[in-house]
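Inverse folding, one chain.
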């Protein structure tokens, strides 16, 4: 009988990526019956992934998920191993020598592309870059955005597009008490943006944002939402969608858009215009974005399954900034099967597949498992499913004793890689909070890895 999962031979699991899915997978493992030792490996010294560097700074309630992760981190069966990049400092194959199984929860770190002329012109950016920049993510610390422009376009109508629009639309007073990175606040204080255009390829009944996020754009100090009442005329299939109570989120969005359309414009300095049934076909300009060309679309297909079809009609207008907010995409990891079309690890209920066969001891959870959808809590159910797949297959993991954390630390030390434990992270965090409190902010994040490590010296 296998001794795996007993005190003499605990099940040793490495999780790669300390965002919500990584923590939820750790939680599910720690709560499980066999004795499990979990090491959560993260390339940055800071944990919490998109909750720290994706959730908008003016949405502190969403960041309260961190309280749960902090509790998980206190478990004696858990280690945080920060500042270690799997795929560079250590390979997945090497992790398998120390652990019975590896769970990859590395998220969707890049963006989908539009594939249109001018996409790479100066002045055209991804939402990921902008979000990472204002949230102080070290990868995006040195990005710069030309906020001397008056007209910005956001392509896409999901919640990330709402976050980007709101951050562009808010005044410094509305942002200065949030945990927005100092460099971003300073740059936004000088912003000349007046017109923000949020462009959706489908109609107002299909927008993917949620109404709470949409509603916020109607509650800003110095920005009015602008919706053209004619754009709210629906085709029969969209009318049918909005009579279906299961489309509650879309119904709420539509009601909010109607309220926006009924408003009279005020003397606020900024305006956020909503466009529907328009898809970008070109970003034009000499050396930088000067204009956007949009095709006018019509919807095709049945209710709840309508797609945008371009017509031969186009419209264009001048703009100096474009943010492409059309969804995230996962990136490959050396030695791990990858579905390049979908941008995720092919898997069956979390077990990674190679040529349709499960790869022994290799699992995945979160956006890199299912694609970039859902709210933070969606990742809990996703991680629980993966952990339950793993535990159902525990007999297949063999009963060899593994060295886990000790083996990992010894290899990292041989390679002179400085890893960060949870206590180290707490020291860094304490200084961030002190720096923030001095300015009336919840924290002032360190935006460079070297700055975080310097706290520990
Ligand atoms: P998303 O919700 O999938 O929205 C992507 C948008 O881009 C959609 O409007 C989509 O239109 C459009 N799009 C995709 N490809 C396009 C193309 N080729 N041309 C033009 N438009 C295109 O993605 P997201 O905004 O990145 O958000 C990712 C996930 O994070 C979502 O589940 C979101 O709810 C969540 N999130 C939540 C919050 C929050 O709770 N406050 C904040 C941020 C993000 P179609 O609908 O036609 O495909």
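Residues assigned per position:
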């Amino acid at each position: 009988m296998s001794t795996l999962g007993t005190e003499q031979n605990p099940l040793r699991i490495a999780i790669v990526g300390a965002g919500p899915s990584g923590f939820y997978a750790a939680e599910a493992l720690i709560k499980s019956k066999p004795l499990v030792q979990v090491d959560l490996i993260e390339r940055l010294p800071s944990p919490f992934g998109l909750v720290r560097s994706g959730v908008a700074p003016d949405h502190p309630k969403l960041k309260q998920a961190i309280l749960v992760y902090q509790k998980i981190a206190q478990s004696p069966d858990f280690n945080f191993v920060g500042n270690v990049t799997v795929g560079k400092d250590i390979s997945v194959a090497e992790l398998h020598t120390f652990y019975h199984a590896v769970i990859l929860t590395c998220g969707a770190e890049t963006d989908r592309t539009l594939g249109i002329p001018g996409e790479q012109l100066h002045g055209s950016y991804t939402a990921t870059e902008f979000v990472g920049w204002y949230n102080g993510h070290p990868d995006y610390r040195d990005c710069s955005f030309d906020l001397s422009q008056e007209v910005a376009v956001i392509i896409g109508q999901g919640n990330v597009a709402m976050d980007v629009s709101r951050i562009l639309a808010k005044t410094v007073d509305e942002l200065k008490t949030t945990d927005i990175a100092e460099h971003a606040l300073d740059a936004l204080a000088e912003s000349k943006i007046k017109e923000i255009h949020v462009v959706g390829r489908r109609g107002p009944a299909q927008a993917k944002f949620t109404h709470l996020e949409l509603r916020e754009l109607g509650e800003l100090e110095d920005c009015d939402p602008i919706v053209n009442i004619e754009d709210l005329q629906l085709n029969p299939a969209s009318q049918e969608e909005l009579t279906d109570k299961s489309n509650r989120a879309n119904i709420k969005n539509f009601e909010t858009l109607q309220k926006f359309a009924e408003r009279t414009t005020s003397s606020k300095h900024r305006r956020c215009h909503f466009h529907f049934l328009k898809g970008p076909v070109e970003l034009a300009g000499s050396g930088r974005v000067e204009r956007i060309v949009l095709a006018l679309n019509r919807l095709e297909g049945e209710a709840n399954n309508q797609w945008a079809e371009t017509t031969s009609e186009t419209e264009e207008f001048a703009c100096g900034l474009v943010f492409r907010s059309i969804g995230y995409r996962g990136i490959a990891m050396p030695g791990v099967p990858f579905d390049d079309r979908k941008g995720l690890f092919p898997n069956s209920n979390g077990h990674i597949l190679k040529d349709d066969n499960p790869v022994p001891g290799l699992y995945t959870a979160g956006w890199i498992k299912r694609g970039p959808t859902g709210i933070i809590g969606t990742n809990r159910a996703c991680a629980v499913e993966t952990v339950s797949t793993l535990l159902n297959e525990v007999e297949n993991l063999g009963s060899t004793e593994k060295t886990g954390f000790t083996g990992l630390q010894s290899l990292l030390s041989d390679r002179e890689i400085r890893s960060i434990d949870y206590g180290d992270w707490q020291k860094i965090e304490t200084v961030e909070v002190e720096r923030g409190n001095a300015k009336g902010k919840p924290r002032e994040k360190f935006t460079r890895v070297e700055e975080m490590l310097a706290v520990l010296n």
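Residues 11-109+330-420 form a domain with the Rossmann fold fold (CATH 3.40.50.720). The chain has a mean pLDDT of 97.
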